[in-house]
Specification:
Layout (H helix, E strand, L loop, with lengths): L9 E3 L6 E3 L5 H10 L12 H8 L1
Antiparallel strand pairs: 1-2
């Protein structure tokens, strides 16, 4: 999951200030993904600067 910084679901939590993945992961699905060390996240969506700005407006 090295592309998290450019993912649409990687957002800053207003309370803690940390960046977290906001995709809806099932617990079993997340565990399976982390154990397999897959490089391609099934929820990855490119969140370029223009996409992020459109969501804020």
């Amino acid at each position: 999951m090295n592309e998290c910084e450019t993912c649409l679901f990687y957002q800053q939590d207003e309370v803690s200030g940390e960046y977290i993945c906001t995709a809806l992961w099932d617990q079993d699905e997340y565990q399976r993904f982390s154990q397999l060390n897959e490089k391609a996240c099934p929820y990855y969506r490119n969140g370029d600067d223009y996409t992020l700005v459109r969501r804020q407006n």
